[in-house]
Amino acid sequence: MRLTLTNDLTTARLQPHGVCLLLLSAVLVGCDGQQSALNPAGAGAQSIATLFWWMAGGALVIWLVVMGIALYATQAHPEAHGIRSARWLIIGGGIIFPVVVLTGLLIYGLMLMPQLRSAENVALRVDVSGEQWWWRVRYRTDAGEAVELANEIRLPVGERVAFSLTSPDVIHSFWIPSLGGKVDMIPGRVNELVLEPTETGTFRGACAEYCGTSHALMNFAVVVMTREAFDQWLAEQAEPAQQPETELQQVGQQAFLANGCGACHQVRGTAADGTVGPDLTHVGSRLTLAAGTLPADVDAFRRWIGHSSAIKPDVKMPAFGMLPEAQLSAMAHYLKGLE
Ligand code: CUA
């Protein structure tokens, strides 16, 4: 990938139109993918994207008209117009026209708001708390049982979901650009956000409010799936943790418990019952590690336990780099096995 890009850059340096093409493709790539408000996969995001294009179009029309009049004014002969018609050109083109276009856009934007905020027909409720710097996610099963996980949200497609958003200490902002708008997570308050995913797929959510050193390392995966797949996933998440299967995983579990990890982390079905850090009961099934910072493989678990503060500055979890490499590796295998 990097090689291709380097080649493109070398060629582009030789040909000016190559630079333009590269810039254009870079801009278009930015609008695509898992985390773009202009690539909507939800009802709210669709309205916001449509509003964006209308506003961009309105701004372009105003700019063209005003610049056209300004250019004309510099070229026109001073006696070409009487005072009266010149005044109309200024008032009409410089004031009335922009006010009419902007008022139209404002009314259109205001009309969209009630449907974006409506909490009717909600099929699912999810509590999300912004922590420094990760996301505590809580579902409730039909039996009313709370299921806690972290840094990953799964949703059934085509159903309205209400998020209850809060934070224990500092302000964060919860944003899944592909699905809808963002809402602040404020300590001592619960804000609600209703989203309706319309397409299955994997998207990316992010914190959109500066919240401290590792604000940029606070992301999460959003998986939109069919109702059946979602129900099965939630039932699996509600289960207690899998017991270690291999000898290596058993050694890892012993090391995990002996080093006090359970003081902060919960692994349901074991002695680890801490609530300060993320629930790790099914951490091995997650798509990313450390809130979207690392891939979720054994090597990343080992690196994270040994060097957490180097990977995520000011993280509350201390680095356990003083442990023997064999112990770190066993713990990584144990955690990856918690699927
Ligand atoms: Cu949390 Cu920025």
UniProtKB/TrEMBL annotation:
Intracellular or extracellular location(s): Membrane
Listed Pfam families: COX2, Cytochrom_C
Origin superkingdom: Bacteria
Example GO BP: ATP synthesis coupled electron transport
GO MF: copper ion binding; cytochrome-c oxidase activity; heme binding; oxidoreductase activity
Residues covered by the Cytochrome c domain: 247-339
Domain Cytochrome oxidase subunit II copper A binding: 121-236
Database matches in CDD domains: CuRO_CcO_Caa3_II (cd04213)
TM regions (residue ranges): 52-74, 86-111
Protein name per the record: Cytochrome aa3 subunit 2
Source organism of the structure: Stutzerimonas zhaodongensis
